[in-house]
Amino acid sequence: MTQETATVRAYAVTLGRTRPAVPVEADSLVRAAARPPYDAVSPEALTAVRLCAGQALSVAELATLLQLPLQVTKVVVADLLGGGFLIHAMPDRSADGSDPTLLEAVLDGLRNL
Question: N or C end of the chain: which has fewer CB within 10 A?
C-alpha cells in the first residue's frame, strides 16, 4: 500500500476526524458487547467488533490486527464504544498486582498525569 493510499484510507475510515470522540488510550482493553453491529458501521469497525468477540484486546492490538494507524483505530474504537458495540474490559483481577512490569506501567502513567 502506498503512502497516498494509506492516507486516503485513514481519512475515509475516520470520515476526516483526527481525534476520538471520547478519550481512548492505546492500552485500553475493549471487548464486544452483546449488541451485534448492523449495516451502520464501516467494514473496519465490523472487523474490530468481530476480533473482540469472546476476548478483550487492547486498542494497540486492534490497530495491528486491522492494519490501521493507532490514531485511526482510536477514532474507530471511540465510535464503537459510543454506539454500544464495544465495552471497556476490566483487567483480570486474579493477578496479585506485584508484577514489576505492571507496577512500572502504573508509575509511568501517574507521572504522565
Answer: C
